[in-house]
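Below is how a single chain appears once it has passed through the pipeline. First comes the sequence as given, then the structure the pipeline wrote out for it. We keep one example in the README because the format questions we get most often are answered faster by looking than by reading.
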Amino acid sequence: MIRVLNFLMLSLTIAICFGLYKITNETRDLQAQLRHTASEIAAEQETIEVLNAEWTLLVRPARLQELNERHLGLQTVSATQMLSIEDIPFRDEVSPTSSSSSSPLVQAPEAAGGRLLTVSARQTP
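Resulting structure:
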């Protein structure tokens, strides 16, 4: 009886040692994976910071103004170029002045300052 009990205790001890060894190795693997993931997160955060810094440099108003002057030549909108919502014609009031079916031009009522506004109207199928 004692031999059977000793054999069972030895088997249980070996099983527990094997289980402990397996859990220890899995824990080491998970810790290595955690360190790798943490380093990837840190690298991505650093990349995000660099991209945010680049974005901040790219959208500076002075830089955008200089690019506008160099490439686009846009001017500041003045108050005389603005129209009220009542000056915009409704669809049933729109009469195309161009024979082009892709983008007919519509002339709206005269804007303030005696300027005539030309608007591209979209046709519905």
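The longest strand covers residues 105-107.

See the next section for the split statistics.
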